[in-house]
User: What shape does this take?
Amino acid sequence: MSDGPPSIWEWIGRNWDTGRADSIRNLLTDHLTMSLVPIVLSLVLALPLGLACARWRWLYQPTSGLMNVIYALPSLPVFMLLISVTGLSQTTVIIPLTFYGMAVLIPAVVDGLRSVPDHVRQSAVAMGFTPLRRLLRVELPIAVPVVLAGLRVVAVSSISLVSVGALIGQGGLGGLFTRAYQNPFMPPVIVGIVLIVALALVADALIVLAQRLLTPWVRARKGMAS
Amino acid sequence: MSWLTSFFSWLGEFFGTAANWSGPGGIPMRLLEHLEFSALALALAVVIAVPVGLLIGHTGRGEVIVVVSANLARALPTLGLLVMFVLLLGTASIWPVIIPLVLLSVPPILVNTYEGIRGVDPELRDAAYGMGLRGGQVLTRALVPVALPLILLGCRLSAIQVVATTTVAAYTGLGGLGRYVIDGFATKDYASVVGGSVLIVLFALVVQILFALAQRVAVSPGVSQRQRIR
Assistant: This one.
């Protein structure tokens, strides 16, 4: 019964901060970097691309087709093919994850903008909003819930997908899985899974919180209804 | 552009080697294995997820299961799950690897089947009852055909997931195209890595095309609006 809970805590204690690159602390930091960069980057890239697709409708069909194809590509072979270009670096994991994120977020941005009711848009025009101000003050805020729903999917799946990078030596906490497999030992697997799911839950909660702060009118309306 | 030239020379080396085309480690065999494992996992997932999704969608009970499973499947790291099952159950059979494959491919089908049934216009449901259909008949004759595009979308998303996870599962000893990538990487045989990767990518794309075609054929013309209702 040496695999019971006490030995997990003991194992964490011994491996938390060994000073080596594969200490849990360093793996956690790597994991955060490799998941946060694609999450932020895919949002930053998807916003203008989604805006363009919403404005010039002919652009949306080919873009969403391309994004569907990208989304269907399995991550491991894509990492492997990128190695010859970007080497065994974090970039090799970050680039595909950014594209997967965009594949989810571009349609979300387009759907969000399309969810703006016509009478709202016309009211903004009638009130003298310039196109840019109308976009920033009226259309984007209304699109926020749909875009953030997409971002929640992207955040949670990016955080879990980073671990596949362990198969090319760049997987953050995924490194715990390869270590546990090579030297059969359960605690690293449990710690890895728990930490990754916990990170995903925290990221998800933060986005939900951001949504509340960015769309105060949703709760105000609910308050009025009750 | 030196990486591009080495890319093509690796590709030529991999596909040009006659030994790669025959025997248990040959491309046809590996392709067949990949297809077999993916199809097995996907079929099991469909058998589990579609009835449960239909039931929850139709009765409106147990919706929590749908939400929790969808979130959990996204958050759980596939590699960690694979290693955990193999460490727990050993590698005597392929089941320790197939079980996590099935577990991860159930939620997309479950969620979309549920959403599909929930999203059916209530008036259509009432009309079906009004025509004298009973509960089960309403489900199979009216709700399922209308929900079919979403059910198939769930299957397509699951197929994406399964093909990718089968590749990763080569790390824990499963056969299939992932072997070229995993073994090639371990022995620094980059022709294998690049050739295997290209094969997997092509495999994934062909699976997607097949699903797109299946959707065209299976969905009723009235539902997909290929035929305008006058």
